[in-house]
Design a protein that fits this description.
The protein is an alpha+beta fold and about 450 residues long. It has three domains: about 110 residues, 2-Layer Sandwich (Beta-Lactamase); about 100 residues, Orthogonal Bundle (Helix Hairpins); about 150 residues, Histidine kinase-like ATPase, C-terminal domain (Heat Shock Protein 90, 2-Layer Sandwich), CATH 3.30.565.10.
Length: about 450
């Protein structure tokens, strides 16, 4: 959001400064492009008559006194050149060049120079000797001390536009920041989060966007409520018949003959599989709707994996699981129960598919600022075009399909649930085939910094 604020702020500042510069340029050339220079040149007739009168009545001494009187006029100077081309008073180089120029008696206008307007005319004394009078109109900005004038003007412009741009940028981005805060709260599970009434009363596009967001939020809140209710209803409606079926199965065992035990065991196995599948589906549904992170805490992934490995080796004493970890592993913020379940699903899946007599390798490292967990088996692997599909529900590799008849679970939900758990913790899961054989499940989780 700060990026948008500063972009708008700088846009206003640049616009203001460019406007100031253009105004200064236009002011500099204004006299040349308008009739104002003509109005300035008009009074030179009076200066010419006065200079000639002084020269005829008092000669050069009186004319010189008259020329020195221009020192009291900061914007106008007058210079007189005698018949030998020598100025009676010190003259700037630009005035001398203009006096000696071959131009006829035409005014010269220079909007960016010291001498903004130069006018020359011949005058004569009582004996008829000809002199040259040059009247110089000094640029107004030089009269006002141009460097200081520009410095103060530019400073005032910058301060004015800075304050105005700050206020205007804040006015334009404040609603967006409020919307961002509301969206963030909604994404974190506050389904009641809505835009403020003051924001909704706006008649512009932002107000319309806020009203559309509130409408969308209400719709999503209703969907999530209905989904939670459906999960609760499904949990009750499906588990109740299974519970009754289990009781009936145990009662049937009391009167069963030995030939029926095999069939009853098969019914019990299928009931257990159905109960496990319902539990997995309910867990996935909860992950879709659970946004409350208030119970999250720092979790040491290394310790959680060690606990998962110990449980797996207790259940499968013949299994070989190699574990390695860096000493500086950062903790992650999350739900330790969900992370334990995700790691357990992946480790059990690896034990299921690794070849007999081979190991499952588990490692935890810090890579590029993230916690990187790798769980690798030494099984047949998975075709590359099927890797991404394994993270979707009810997708199984061919080897997993073959294991179902051996009594193993194989609904295709283990990796899908693990992927949902990791995504719930703002992480990601990658599946790769190891170059020496076997499947690698790589988990990236953001650390608690």
């Amino acid at each position: 959001m700060r990026g948008v604020f500063w972009k708008i702020y700088l846009a206003f500042m640049v616009t203001g400064l460019v406007t100031t510069l253009v105004t200064l340029v236009l002011a500099s050339y204004y006299r040349q492009w308008s009739n104002d220079s003509v109005n300035l040149i008009a009074p030179t007739g009076g200066y010419i008559s006065a200079a000639e009168l002084m020269l005829q009545q008092g000669g050069e001494p009186l004319l010189l006194e008259w020329l020195l009187s221009f020192e009291r006029h900061p914007s106008v100077n007058a210079y007189v050149f005698d018949h030998q081309g020598v100025s009676l008073t010190p003259a700037p180089e630009a005035v001398i060049r203009y006096a000696y120029s071959s131009e006829s008696y035409q005014a010269r206008i220079n909007p960016v120079g010291r001498s903004e307007i130069l006018v020359k005319a011949p005058i004569s004394d009582a004996s008829g000797q000809v002199y040259l009078l040059v009247v110089e109109f000094i640029h107004p900005l030089l009269v006002f001390n141009l460097p200081q004038y520009l410095a103060w003007g530019l400073l005032a412009s910058v301060l004015l536009f800075a304050i105005w741009s700050l206020l205007l940028s804040g006015y334009l981005t404040r609603p967006v920041r409020q919307m961002q805060k509301t969206v963030r709260a909604f994404a974190q599970g506050d389904w009641k989060a809505r835009m403020s009434p003051r924001f909704l009363r706006r008649r512009d596009e932002l107000g319309e966007l806020g009203r559309e967001f509130d409408h969308m939020a209400s719709y999503i809140e209703r969907l999530i409520h209905d989904q939670k209710q459906l999960v609760s209803d499904v949990s009750h409606e499906l588990r109740s018949p299974l519970a009754r079926s289990s009781i009936a199965l145990e009662l049937a065992r009391l009167d069963a003959v030995p030939e029926q035990e095999e069939h009853l065991d098969r019914i019990e196995l299928e009931n257990q599989r159905l109960n496990d599948m319902i539990e997995d589906l309910l867990n996935m549904a909860r992950l879709e709707t659970q946004q409350d992170h208030s119970h999250w805490q720092p979790v040491d992934c290394g310790q959680v994996l060690q606990q998962v490995i110990e449980d797996a080796q207790f259940e499968h004493p013949e299994s070989i699981i190699n574990f390695s970890s860096d000493a500086d592993i950062h903790k992650v913020i999350g739900d330790i129960r969900l992370l334990h379940s995700a790691f357990e699903n992946i480790v059990r899946n690896a034990l299921l598919h690794t070849e007999s007599g081979t190991s499952v390798d588990v490692s935890v490292r810090m890579r590029r600022g993230q916690v990187r967990i790798v769980i690798r088996d030494h099984g047949p692997g998975v075709p590359d075009d099927k890797l991404e599909d394994l993270l979707r529900p009810f997708v199984r590799a061919e080897v997993a399909r073959q294991r179902i008849n051996e009594g193993h679970r194989g609904f295709g939900l283990g990796l899908a649930i693990a992927n949902r758990v990791v995504a719930h913790h703002r992480g990601r899961v990658r599946l790769l085939n190891h170059r020496e054989g076997g499947l690698m499940v790589i988990i990236y989780l953001p650390p608690d910094l």
